[in-house]
Amino acid sequence: MTKRVSTVPFVRVQHARIRQGPVQRRFGLATLEINSAGPDLRIQGLAGDTADRLKALVVERAGDLAEDS
């Protein structure tokens, strides 16, 4: 078992997407992928609705920062 913690400032976020393979769909799980100007992030094993809410939060917050520039 490994644990990795990475952070990326919202200002570096370029794109966010949700991916679900057939097994994930069967169990209502999803992976949130965030592409950034730095390292890319992937959060696996999220509940589908949680992934949707997190994606919306990240996209909204990153968009707010882009408009402030």
Helical segment count: 2
Rg calc: 13 Å
Shape: globular
Model regions low in confidence, pLDDT < 50 over at least 5 residues = none
Give the N-terminus to C-terminus distance in angstroms.
41 Å
Query: Sheet bearing the most strands, described?
Result: 3 strands, antiparallel
In order across it, which strands form the biggest sheet?
1-2-3
- Please state the structural category: alpha+beta
Helical content, roughly?
A: 25-40%
Summarize the helix and strand pattern as letters.
EHEEH
Instruction: Give the beta-strand count.
Output: 3
Number of domains: 1
Q: Return the average pLDDT rounded to an integer.
A: 90
Strand coverage percent = 25-35%
Task: Give the arrangement of secondary structure elements.
Blueprint: E1 13-19, H1 22-27, E2 29-36, E3 41-47, H2 48-68
Antiparallel strand pairs: 1-2, 2-3
Write a structural description.
This protein has helices at 22-27, 48-68, and strands at 13-19, 29-36, 41-47. A hairpin with a 4-residue loop joins strand 2 (29-36) and strand 3. The chain has one domain (10-68). The protein is built from two helices and three strands. It is globular. With 69 residues, the protein is an alpha+beta fold. A three-stranded antiparallel β-sheet has the order 1-2-3.
